[in-house]
């Protein structure tokens, strides 16, 4: 019997929520509850896991109802993402100048971790988008760094049975984020000295931060710290969260190829914001692209590519990839 | 009697409103009504005019109450900005694929124009931030262009006694905006062939769009189309809407110096988004910087600068500016 | 009868020359004469035309020898590009502060035009990469603009039988170029008021200048000013002049599809700088990619795409393109 | 007795050399020998040290003549920079695919180190601008990383009495550099495990790489690895190497203020490329700006700034800096 060999696909639950921005303050659509969003994720048809934001919407929603909704949609919670970037935390979560807000952030993350444990998630995602600074001279950078390292370390020590994945990003909403790139986040993680802290590498964040995402993945994997990935696409100047492969197809292939070559076997996960598109269709399209990439990787002439990379021969390497990917190459 | 010779200062009323973004979906502060925002503008102390978004908050607020609030705060409405970028218009206002939504946008702008007329504004501001495209292959660019030109022209013809100022911007919220830069907007305006359409030049939009804002101002003025300006600052990769002069002081001086040299006598207007700062203080600080710039301009050795520019001597020009601006230059 | 169903391919002759930059000041390879470069172009095998820089290397090389070299390589000169960006012109060609240098630039271009006429080129290419400014306050922008418009106009009037194609670019080597984008260049051209001035649209310049290249092409075509194109690729932050399609495949397809749909029938021309690669192979690879694109365009479901664009349906449009382009899509 | 209270000023000797780029291939001026460049540096009047590229021009120039030239100009060699980015090394120095070229790079650096020892330099500067990759799929990133770490470690071990300072940069001439940012370079240095390897932090590289230079300095200092700095300015999209403070005055002040506050006492060193300006004057201007900054730092209200930073109060912090810096603030 032939078993379909493909990775598990996942998505952040916000993919199916309401989007708001500073212009369309009334939202790109009506509010969406956690249960509704899970049902939409279920409609996609190929998703196996979702990453859930916490608190749920509404906040009083029992965990058991979330678990039921996941179950009826054949979904599992791969992660839980505490919302440490809403109004309480706009001046920072780990790095908030107020100690009481910093404690509040840790309390929220701890509560999320308890729920995550109950749901059996693989990791708690930390996305400290409000942790950083906006203006020159605003911050004492040593203090900001210390707050960040110590805050995450405290969580890692408190929940030794759980994994914490830091999602880095150059900026937004803060003008400058503390965890801005892969190397900086690894530096901080190694300073924490805990085994259960790692990285969630978002392809788009890496891309628009000036990294080569495949290289960033390699670096994180080489130090045993790549806990999860998200994919999407953008125009390289901002985190546009477009559908996978819509702009940077070759680099997306390189990213997934690198993961596979290095034996990284996690979920291929979507972090798209289809502001003006159908959410379910956008997820299906993202998965379609990932499937096409997965198949194309099988067609890559690995020996030839290894030789090309050994020689750092860009033209040869690109020809090999085109051959695997494109349908209309001349002979 | 010696009258203090300085420009009028103004601000967009949104400077004093509630900010929301896709992360802090509950807002950087509580909701703010139009009247409250006007009162905050009044607290600044040096503002003479404001640009009002329309519909008011709440929508049923009578114009007379707005007029009263302005009056008691010694403010005048310089402009009205119809909100053609909220949920109804997320797929475009002038360029929406649906004709009925396009008509709705024109209707909203027309209603705003009527109110503007009642309030005695100088211009109706058009900010078509949702007009454009997000993905390669999404749009028929010729059609998008035509919709934009024809839509604005129709308004200009319908309200010949009013002026319409298009605020261009490279992107956000749309990934690509139709009116993306000064030259492109001038091309469109000249194609419209109406005298009452011009440009609102936002310093920050120009900066992060790769323009030299002073040059952009010169170009618009040379064709008689600079109707208004907004100022703020950013890190050149996004429309950060920071306090004036906090990053690009010299280019801000150049911008205002150019306006003055060319005899442009409009309002010096703030478009800042102090997400995490005190709004009134941020406005005061922006005005303080503008005042310092205004005074520094008086200290510029104009003959020497003209000679330096004639010779395109960058070092000499910069020395002249430093001398006018800095307090601690060595002799 | 079998009509060759593909566009003509071309290349800038500098593709086959010596590259130098501010670090590898001894060059990425040894010096290359014009005749050697033409012979390399001939080796590519699929090139029909080349764009020649002038003066030739060496400067005293007779035009007849160039013509012979072209002939024996089955090549034709589509254009001539006067080098108005070398040492004499580092402070500008059209916009040089010295009138005598400005005249020298016009003289060089005129000499190039004479040679171009002799070689039967389609257009004289103007690439004013040193025309602009570097520092805030350095230039009188009105004067710089005037110099640019009047200089090109003078040429257009002097050579009414020839076409002049301005290649715009945001920057490099000058920090800011006068002819920085498509709209700005069109504004200037329309101000010139001559029929024989148009645009050479370089895909990479457009891309890293924040334009959508297909939209830029549409705009130039709509005004009858698209005289020529160059293609290559980059990482969107600089003019990397990489092999066509190596990063932005979909946007490259969109660009060529737009040209074809609008009936633009010029040469598909390479402007690549394979600094560390084999030049002939890089040209062959660029052409291979263009051929694959040409064939893929034939596979696009045009009716479906027209409907998707009418509805501005990004997901549908992208699906149609993927179907034409990729070999491994799931059913 | 009054001791001159200011830092030592320095410059890279290339500041006074010939500049070439891919357009002005005949150079922005005539060739300049090492001795001529040193004499130009001497003309500046306020320079105490220079960083010398190696091999000298001409290559056979005896070290003793260089030493004499330095002496007669009251200069000292602070560093030596082996040219591991010229034609031999365009495919990489440490990371060249050819082992023999990698050895050649180490040999050149070793020769430079010997000369540096003779001249009594403070550090050997490593600027591996050709080490990296250009295209997706070109390189095996793990191998490139290993080559980089092992190559530098080998040098550090071979010359335990000398210091090696890696100058990182996001890109140019290579599209992507291995040592691209401060965190990544620190990761690599810590992996090397040698005490005599550190960082040369170029303000402009940090700026256009998306870092906050003052934060980058803090991070390097906190790990004892900030060996040297270079300053200049740019438009944040490329390494324009403009005169210090011409665009980002406030961030330059923040950078120097941070160095001083953290007790870092190295040379304030110029890395400017005044392509079209007088080189000596450009250096004098850069120093004038640095002197103005040095004095302004003395005027900063440190207690107030510490309080503002403790509260992360951007507005207050900026007001304090404006007060120290600007001459025309309103009362």
| CATH class label of the largest domain in chain A | Alpha Beta
The total count of strands of chain A amounts to: 10
Largest sheet of chain A: 8 strands, parallel
Q: In order across it, which strands form the biggest sheet of chain A?
A: 9-8-6-4-3-2-1-10
Mean pLDDT across residues of chain A = 97
C-alpha-based Rg of chain A, rounded: 20 Å
| Structural classification of chain A | alpha/beta
Task: Give the secondary structure arrangement, pairings included.
4 copies of one chain form a homotetramer.
Chain A lengths: L8 E4 L21 H11 L4 E6 L8 H10 L3 E7 L16 H21 L3 E4 L5 E2 L7 H18 L5 E4 L8 E2 L4 H11 L4 E6 H6 L4 H10 L3 E5 L18 H13 L6 E3 L8 H21 L2 H9 L3 H12 L6
Parallel strand pairs in A: 1-2, 1-10, 2-3, 3-4, 4-6, 6-8, 8-9
Antiparallel strand pairs in A: 5-7
Helix pairs in contact in A: 1-2, 1-9, 4-5, 7-8, 8-9, 9-11, 10-11
Family (chains A, B, C, D): Belongs to the xylose isomerase family.
Subunit structure (chains A, B, C, D): Homotetramer.
Catalytic activity (chains A, B, C, D): alpha-D-xylose = alpha-D-xylulofuranose
Describe the structure.
Chains A, B, C, D: Its EC number is 5.3.1.5. Chains A, B, C, D: This is Xylose isomerase. Chains A, B, C, D: Belongs to the xylose isomerase family. Chains A, B, C, D: It catalyses: alpha-D-xylose = alpha-D-xylulofuranose. Chains A, B, C, D: Homotetramer. The structure is a homotetramer. Chain A is α/β, with parallel strands linked by helices and about 325 residues long. Chain A folds into 2 domains: about 290 residues, TIM Barrel (Alpha-Beta Barrel); about 30 residues, no CATH class. In chain A, about 45% of the residues lie in helices and about 15% in strands. The first copy, chain A, has 11 helices and 10 strands. The first copy, chain A, has an 8-stranded parallel β-sheet. In chain A, helix 2 links the parallel strand 2 and strand 3. In chain A, helix 9 packs across helix 11. The radius of gyration of chain A is 20 Å and the shape is globular. The two termini of chain A are about 35 Å apart. The model of chain A has no long low-confidence stretch (mean pLDDT about 95).
């Amino acid at each position: 019997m032939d078993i379909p060999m493909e990775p598990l696909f996942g998505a952040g639950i916000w993919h199916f929520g309401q989007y708001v921005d500073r212009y369309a303050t009334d939202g790109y659509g009506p509010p969406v509850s956690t249960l509704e969003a899970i049902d939409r994720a279920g409609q996609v048809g190929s998703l196996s896991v979702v990453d859930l934001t916490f608190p749920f919407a509404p906040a009083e929603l029992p965990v058991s109802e979330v678990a039921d909704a996941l179950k009826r949609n054949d979904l599992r919670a791969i992660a839980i993402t505490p919302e440490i970037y809403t109004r309480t935390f706009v001046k920072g979560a780990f790095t908030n100048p107020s100690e009481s807000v910093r404690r509040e952030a840790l309390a929220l993350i701890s509560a999320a971790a308890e729920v995550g444990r109950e749901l059996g998630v693989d990791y708690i995602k930390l996305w400290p988008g409000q942790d950083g600074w906006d203006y020159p001279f605003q911050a004492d950078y040593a203090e900001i760094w210390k707050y960040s390292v110590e805050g995450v370390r405290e969580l890692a020590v408190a929940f030794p049975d759980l994994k914490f994945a830091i999602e880095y990003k150059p900026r937004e909403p803060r003008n400058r984020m503390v965890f801005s790139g892969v190397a900086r986040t690894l530096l901080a993680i190694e300073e924490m000295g805990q085994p259960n802290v790692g990285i969630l590498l978002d392809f788009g964040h890496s891309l628009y931060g000036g990294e080569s995402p495949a290289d960033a993945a390699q670096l994180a994997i080489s130090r045993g710290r790549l806990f999860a990935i998200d994919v999407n696409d953008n125009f390289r100047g901002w985190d546009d969260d477009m559908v996978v492969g819509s702009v940077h197809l070759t680099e997306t292939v390189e990213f997934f190829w690198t993961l596979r070559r290095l034996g990284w076997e996690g979920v291929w996960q979507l972090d798209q914001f289809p502001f003006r598109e159908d959410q379910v269709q956008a997820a299906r399209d993202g998965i379609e692209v990932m499937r096409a990439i997965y198949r194309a990787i099988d067609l890559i002439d690995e020996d030839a590519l290894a030789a090309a990379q050994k020689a750092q021969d860009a033209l040869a390497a690109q020809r090999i990839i085109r051959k695997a990917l494109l349908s209309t190459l001349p002979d």
